[in-house]
Amino acid sequence: MAVFKIQRYDPEKDGRPYFQTYEVPVEQGMSILDCLFYIKERLDATLSFRASCRMGICGSCAMYINGLPRLACETQVTSLATDTIEVRPLPNYEVIKDLVVDLAPLFEKHQRVRPWIIPYDPVELDRPTKEYHQSPAELERYLQFAYCLKCGLCLAACPTVATDQEFIGPQALAQAFRYNSDTRDGGDTERMAAVDTLHGLWRCHMAGACAEVCPKGVDPALAIQLMKREAVFGKKKGRARLADPPHAVKLLPGILKAPEPTVKRSEGEI
Ligand code: SF4
Ligand code: FES
Questions:
Q1: Would you say 50 and 99 are in contact if contact means Cβ atoms under 8 Å apart?
Q2: 144-193 per-position pLDDT tens digit
Q3: 72, 32 in Cβ contact below 8 A?
Q4: Which residues line ligand 2 (CB under 6 A)?
Q5: For the residues 89-106, what does the mean pLDDT come to?
Q6: Atom of ligand 2 nearest to the CA of 58
Q7: How confident is the model at residue 250 (pLDDT cuts 50, 70, 90)?
Q8: Ligand 1 lining (C-beta closer than 6 Å)
Q9: Looking at the CA of 178, which ligand is closest?
């Protein structure tokens, strides 16, 4: 038997969130999502949560389970090694009801980076003249980022999102990098305009929590660092943009000057 402490909250009825406790007879192989369905079908039909595929594909069942953002359908009860399980809605989102949060900010930020292939020649979109082949090495450049489910766990884990709701966040930034890295795409200038901003790329402090919680092994923190490099040095070798600092850096008032280097180069050394 496992004890589930579930955060309940209906903004239309309740003054504040509260916990409700349920006992679930757990069997080998049961996931947290199985237990939530047990509660809803046999103990309390008023409990609200989202789920669809039950196999780690749709990203709908993202929630905060025993202190970590996780997918409920991919989390085996036995893997938590405890009989007491606390389930809350994902942090950093508005609660709609109980475990259901408003994912609109996630999708709006995702859309902002134009997450589709923008052909070099717009006419090709409607009247393609050829196939665009990619080598395995070219595919490798963006493949891990293409596995994103849009579950939103990374935004729930991100300490910068927690303190700056305008931060575009790890999911959208990883997708900007995914499409910028695609050899069929010519939209990196538009995307960089969306991410090279005060609440974009440069707000990431490299906590790495996004990569820790991603259920698909996407590493948004890596994408962000690679994109920062591209913002400064340009995408192609020899196209350095150091004389033209990124937009956000120019705008920041009172930005701290870099400290004096402790190791000084000798005169004439590059
Ligand atoms: S990067 Fe990972 S954690 Fe973030 S939305 Fe995509 S699949 Fe979810
Ligand atoms: S129900 Fe689809 S990922 Fe969990």
A1: yes
A2: 999 999 999 999 999 999 999 999 999 999 999 999 999 999 999 999 99
A3: yes
A4: 51-54, 56-61, 71, 73
A5: 98
A6: 2
A7: low
A8: 59, 148-154, 171, 174, 213-214, 216, 218, 220
A9: 1
Residue 31, classified by CB atoms within 10 Å of its CB into exposed (0-12), middle (13-18) or buried (19+), is: buried
Question: How many angstroms does the Cα of residue 59 sit away from the middle of ligand 1?
Answer: 8
Count of alpha carbons within 13 angstroms of residue 264, beta-carbon side:
5
Going from the Cα of 89 to the center of ligand 2, the distance in angstroms, rounded, reads 15
Q: Round the average pLDDT of the chain to a whole number and report it.
A: 88
Q: What's the whole-model pTM score?
A: 0.85
Question: Which H/E stretch holds residue 256?
Answer: none
Which of 57, 65, 125 has the alpha carbon at shortest distance from 91? 65
Nearest Cα to Cα of residue 223 among 178, 158, 187: 178
Provide the edge-to-edge strand list for the sheet that holds 68-71: 18-24, 2-8, 84-88, 62-65, 68-71
CA of 30 to the centre of ligand 2 (A): 14
